[in-house]
């Protein structure tokens, strides 16, 4: 049976060997000299060989046996490996190292997360991050497939996702988006039936209308555009109108107008989604806590 080597005993051995004495090693370890001597004897018993030559005078320097000389670099190697692992795990527990994977809907990814992530990662230079942005359905799939630690999305039909934990953070209203020179641009609010008179372009967020009185618009749509950049380009070109949540509306647009959809009023709730039965990594848990605290402050 292999001996169980204690890191503390290895440290005592290295200190005695390097400092050439039990007394100075005891001072370094903040222990008594008898305690260090007992620690070394126990280590020698486990190894089955003596580590230090017997001394005839208390003032004589402590010298290693041939076996001790051979063991010294091995002991240092074990201590170094132990300390590296301990440091890595400590940094991971303090969310300062590791690999964090998250996914978010584009609207929150572009409008909200940059400032939050800048604050969170300011003092975590060793933490690696993989960040994905996609629509809510794709984000939920990444969560389900464990491709990411957690996602930020709207949870359609929450009652159907009993395997997930949803923490609502943000909410925004659905509105109509059209060019500034469009006939609807002068409106302050709109009824959904007014939209049927215009070319309607549906997109990934249009599913938010499914459970509202405005659901007939989805059947009225002749075009579907999934990519936000392409959608904005088509709107700016005057190709038609669409509905978008407020956070998805281009923040600094000078060519498009956002008009709240008043009838019906459709609110989107966005939050953090993760698997209920899977533990989060320390960095993921820390980031979630940070987002929740920052958003409630």
From TrEMBL:
<keyword id="KW-0805">Transcription regulation</keyword>
<comment type="similarity">
    <text>Belongs to the LysR transcriptional regulatory family.</text>
</comment>
<dbReference type="GO" id="GO:0003677">
    <property type="term" value="F:DNA binding"/>
</dbReference>
<dbReference type="GO" id="GO:0003700">
    <property type="term" value="F:DNA-binding transcription factor activity"/>
</dbReference>
<dbReference type="InterPro" id="IPR036388">
    <property type="entry name" value="WH-like_DNA-bd_sf"/>
</dbReference>
<keyword id="KW-0238">DNA-binding</keyword>
<feature type="domain" description="HTH lysR-type">
    <location>
        <begin position="5"/>
        <end position="62"/>
    </location>
</feature>
<keyword id="KW-0804">Transcription</keyword>
<dbReference type="Pfam" id="PF00126">
    <property type="entry name" value="HTH_1"/>
</dbReference>
<dbReference type="InterPro" id="IPR036390">
    <property type="entry name" value="WH_DNA-bd_sf"/>
</dbReference>
<dbReference type="InterPro" id="IPR005119">
    <property type="entry name" value="LysR_subst-bd"/>
</dbReference>
<dbReference type="Pfam" id="PF03466">
    <property type="entry name" value="LysR_substrate"/>
</dbReference>
<dbReference type="InterPro" id="IPR050950">
    <property type="entry name" value="HTH-type_LysR_regulators"/>
</dbReference>
<protein>
    <submittedName>
        <fullName>Transcriptional regulator, LysR family</fullName>
    </submittedName>
</protein>
<dbReference type="InterPro" id="IPR000847">
    <property type="entry name" value="LysR_HTH_N"/>
</dbReference>
<dbReference type="GO" id="GO:0005829">
    <property type="term" value="C:cytosol"/>
</dbReference>
């Amino acid at each position: 049976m292999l001996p169980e080597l204690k890191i503390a005993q290895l440290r005592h051995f290295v200190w005695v060997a390097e400092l050439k004495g039990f007394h100075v090693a005891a001072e370094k370890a903040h222990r008594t000299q008898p305690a260090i001597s007992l620690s070394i004897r126990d280590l020698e018993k486990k190894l089955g060989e003596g580590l230090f030559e017997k001394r005839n005078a208390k003032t004589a320097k402590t010298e290693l046996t041939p076996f001790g000389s051979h063991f010294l670099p091995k002991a240092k190697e074990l201590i170094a490996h132990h300390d590296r692992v301990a440091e890595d795990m400590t940094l991971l527990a303090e969310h300062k190292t590791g690999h964090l994977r998250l996914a978010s809907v584009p609207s929150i990814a572009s409008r909200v997360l940059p400032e939050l992530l800048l604050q969170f990662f300011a003092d975590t230079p060793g933490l690696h991050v993989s960040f994905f942005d996609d629509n809510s359905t794709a984000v939920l799939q990444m969560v389900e497939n464990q491709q990411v630690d957690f996602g930020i999305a709207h949870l359609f039909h929450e009652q159907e996702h009993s395997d997930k934990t949803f923490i609502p953070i943000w909410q925004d209203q659905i509105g109509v988006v059209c060019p500034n020179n469009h006939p609807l641009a002068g409106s302050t609010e709109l009824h959904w039936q007014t939209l049927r008179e215009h070319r309607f372009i549906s997109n990934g967020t249009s599913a938010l209308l499914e459970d509202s009185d405005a659901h007939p618009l989805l059947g009225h749509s002749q075009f579907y555009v999934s990519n936000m950049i392409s959608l904005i380009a088509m709107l700016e070109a005057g190709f038609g109108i669409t509905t978008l949540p407020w956070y998805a509306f281009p923040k600094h647009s000078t060519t498009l107008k956002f008009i709240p959809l008043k009838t019906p009023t459709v609110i989107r709730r966005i939050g953090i989604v993760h698997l209920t039965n899977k533990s989060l990594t320390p960095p993921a848990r820390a980031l979630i806590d940070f987002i929740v605290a920052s958003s409630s402050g």
